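Thread: zinc ion complex, take 2
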Amino acid sequence: MSLSISPWKYGKRWVYSITYDEALADLHRFAIPMHEEYGIPGHVEVVVGQMGEVRNIGNSSFNGYRHMNADELRDLLARGWGVGNHSWSHEIITPEMVDREIDQAKEVLEEALGESIILYCSPGDNTNMADHVLEACRNYGYLGAMSLTDALNLPGDELFWINRTALHDHYYPPFYSAYDPYRNIRQAQAVQGWIIDYCHCPLETAVHPNKDCSEAQLRQRLETVLSEGGDSVWCAVPEEVLSYHLMRRHARIEAVAGDGPEDAGTSDDDGEMAGGATAGGATAGGATVGGNISSQRYRIVLPELPDQVPYRSLTLEANVPAAWCRDPRVTVEEQELAAEVVRPGVLRVTTLVRDGTEVEVRAAPRS
Ligand SMILES: [Zn+2]
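Output below.
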């Protein structure tokens, strides 16, 4: 018998998020209604120094479009979206600029939205993922940094280089390409990956074909995620995914001795997670009835969890005898929760967890 933590919340196989850099007000024309229609939350990356203003940044393709203001961003938060810091100025961040671009931008955005900002998103290109920038992100209380590297993120990856899939009409020369609504999905299914798409502001046609897609292409992508993902994809904002990721990586499961003999439990060695996360199973203590083990107790500790983690649930899977799978209940902090039978002998429950939460799994009594 053992208790382990699922690689992703709800036991989902892979994860999908999408980000819209620059947080332009014209997202209301196509993207936001589309998200409402499909029930998928989005995420915007704000150039804090031009919040609410018409964009005026170098020779940006999006100059002339208006950035959302604080009220509009708060409206997105209320719809379940997330907001990240896309720097103060969208310029190349030198070591002298990190206070303004990373620290001050975070504070101003938090003040305007009344919500803590835990994600940095590199403006321009990966130049702004330089060591001094990432070091500042760590020092100023971020929990992750998003890059422009087109790759998946895995359950064991570190979070200060998060990859994003470019959802663009086509790529820059010499790597010409055609739009692919299936991009990275098959691999995400195979390796339990987390896709984060990125684009800017899909309209009738892409504002810049190497930086954006059209609204029709966006719709195709969201429909493909849902049709390929079925019940196996978890669609969530990066903040929630990153929270789960940190909860899983910091959690340790300890067996708690039950009322029965100390040696009633069996040792578990299959707790190692895909992607190298270390939280896993435990050696169980058990209570016995008539010589048979009738319950298992565990304690989950989170000694080093960063204070800023906003969402604190874990999905737990317990390996149990077949008899325990009849109408199963799992007790978390003295509260009985209905558990799901996911495979023969495997129960699953998703629950809020704090440092020291106790979980009891036991045979269900007949009424
Ligand atoms: Zn940008």
